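Table S2 (text version). Query chain:
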Amino acid sequence: MDLGVSSHQLDETSRGFSFRSDAPLDMRMDPTKGETAAEFIARSTQHELARLLRENGETRFAGAIAKSVIARLPMTTNELTEAVERAVPMAARRRGHVATRTFQALRIAVNDEEEQLRRGLEAALDTVNIGGVVAVISYHSGEDRVVKSFFAEQQSGGCHCPIELGCVCGAVSRVSVFKASAQLATAQEIAANPRARSARLRVARKVAP
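Corresponding structure-token output:
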């Protein structure tokens, strides 16, 4: 599974995925159903929005951004960008656009991407034969956290027994995880494909019960 978002969709300015051009704040992958990003913001509390931003890597200014966004209730991408810019001092801005993580967090929430990923992982593991491999490339911390948690749960069989007592619940492992940490792109791979810089690969092999 390669979890990279379709550049074709992001480049469609009318979809509202990008801060590079002004458009209605939509962000739905399927524009025929579900709520838009503007509608999601309008029904969210400041606390809920701040938590969403923190979960997607916007740690230091999550509270300030959430307060600014809720106060503005943006309807377009430019209005959302301006709300984020007002909340983050120029001196504190890191490399890249200041609104990147806010746009990403909203896109993930609007499209329920983490739940879709969990369902996809379950389906993949159900589909492969014993000895088959499930390999997942993720591109941000939220995705990687879901994959890591899913593989760990499947490796333990859902066991939550205290380590000092050992497993007494009869949990059965479904996979063997190749390594505890994610595999990152090499310097050579990044030089050939700069987008690989944020890629994280995790691999698990299905085992017999």
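Notes on Table S2: The first strand starts at residue 133 and ends at 138. The chain is about 45% helix and 10% strand.
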